[in-house]
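Protocol step 4 of 6: structure prediction from sequence.
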Amino acid sequence: ELDRVRPFHTKPAIPPHKIPSALKKQGVKVGIVTSSPGWYAKALIEKFSIHCDTLIAYEDTEAHKPDAEPLEAALSALDVEPSEAAYVGDDAIDVEASHHAGVVSIGAAWRYSSDAALWKGFCGTSADIVLWDTGPLLKPKDLLRHGLLGERKAAGKRAVWHRGSTLMWTESGYSVPQVGQTFTSLMVFPVVSSEG
């Protein structure tokens, strides 16, 4: 079955499975926390030549995501404080686990590029940062500037405008923008097709 597994390809940035090695070259510690069994995670890490300093798989903790225990185990193994860490995930339980562990949550939106229904659900997870491509991950010191536009502006901080700065989905023929973690804009824009 492993021969059927394919990596995500994000354009124009580098594929997600190559990010850990790029970060290692910058001296960044990388941990992988997964709900998958260890044998499977290790096989994928080997298949795709993914670098990591620690791996926390399903059987490595008693509690599992969205509980904080798996992320806390990784932080301990890496000797990193929660305030110095960020966790990239593509599921609501990843974002929730990040919040429970006190680390910055980064929503990997590239998973949702072809599934609008799942995207709408993911918008409600309240990730601190939502990225549609991997490029910003290569600049960890600038990463926080990629937060949601409303959150950054409300805190009086500079923000970087990018596709994930605001979250938008279509509902009942209207585009609904969400500009912060907990508030949706009151403005809605009708979706107009090219036919009129």
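Step 5 (inspection) to follow. The first strand starts at residue 31 and ends at 33.
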